[in-house]
Task: inverse folding
């Protein structure tokens, strides 16, 4: 247990559970599907958010920072998780939100504010330049010394945290699937795989082709080299980030009725919808063992 983990009052659940998912829709294809329940790691800092944050939180503490600053959209799970982690671990938090402020706050931003996060906004043109020195300097002038976390929390330390996931899986598997927003989770999981295993990411944002380069960049930042054991499927964004369509809602409802699990529609529902479509299209050989990560 690292320092950040201990500071969450022992509520961090690692390794996260692994459970089989019997589903009559998959039976004709001879594919075994399991769920890695990273959504159960912590009630407020679940899944890939915890894995991405844990080493960064230790680094922030070691470097003497008392304030975290990070970036995200209005529905960002990373913003929520950073606010919660800061609340539990004694960090002040600042969330830099893409676009204009809207009142009342949506549930995600209201939650973050309720956990003590200071919210500030950048117009979309400036937000696209959020990593440039002049934008960061203005934020530092306003908020003081901060440990800066990138959008989605994806950096080398985050990738290292996500790379720890495959070793928790004690049953044999061939493919591991996850949703892709910024590419950090996929980068880490792929880096942690064994020989003969591969990772499959499902992009949740429209026009996300930049993710291929980003996954390679993150792997190089974390480990010095990129791997070739992963691919990204771009066909199931359903119109873009935080957008949905009736067929996705129907899938979520059906999945909940069959398995008693309410899927997050921004990320995991898109991944599992795409995975079911690919399985039913015969794109996985009979006998393939697939782990789908819920975060």
Result:
């Amino acid at each position: 247990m690292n320092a950040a983990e201990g500071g969450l009052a022992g509520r961090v659940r690692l390794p996260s559970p692994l459970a089989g998912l019997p589903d009559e829709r998959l039976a004709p294809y001879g594919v075994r599907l399991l769920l890695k329940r990273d959504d159960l790691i912590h009630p407020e800092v679940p899944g890939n958010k915890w894995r991405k944050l844990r080493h960064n939180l230790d680094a922030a503490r070691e470097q003497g920072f008392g304030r975290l600053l990070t970036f995200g959209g209005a529905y960002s799970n990373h913003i929520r998780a950073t606010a919660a982690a800061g609340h539990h671990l004694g960090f002040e938090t600042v969330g830099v939100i893409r676009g204009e402020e809207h009142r009342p706050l949506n549930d995600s931003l209201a939650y973050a504010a309720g956990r003590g996060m200071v919210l500030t906004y950048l117009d979309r043109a400036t937000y696209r330049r959020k990593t440039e020195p002049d934008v960061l300097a203005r934020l530092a002038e306003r908020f003081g010394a901060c440990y800066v976390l990138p959008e989605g929390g994806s950096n080398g330390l985050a990738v290292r945290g996500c790379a720890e996931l495959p070793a928790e899986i004690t049953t044999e598997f061939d493919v591991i699937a996850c949703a892709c927003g910024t590419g950090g989770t996929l980068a880490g999981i792929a880096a942690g795989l064994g020989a003969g295993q591969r990772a499959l990411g499902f992009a949740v944002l429209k026009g996300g082709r930049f993710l291929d380069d980003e996954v390679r960049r993150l792997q190089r930042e974390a480990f010095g080299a990129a791997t070739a054991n992963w691919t990204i499927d771009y066909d199931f964004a359903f119109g873009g980030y935080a957008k949905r369509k009736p067929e996705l809602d129907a899938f979520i409802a059906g999945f909940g009725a069959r398995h008693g699990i309410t899927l997050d529609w921004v990320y995991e529902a898109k991944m599992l919808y795409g995975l079911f479509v690919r399985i039913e299209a015969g794109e996985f050989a009979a006998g393939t063992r697939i782990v789908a990560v819920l975060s």
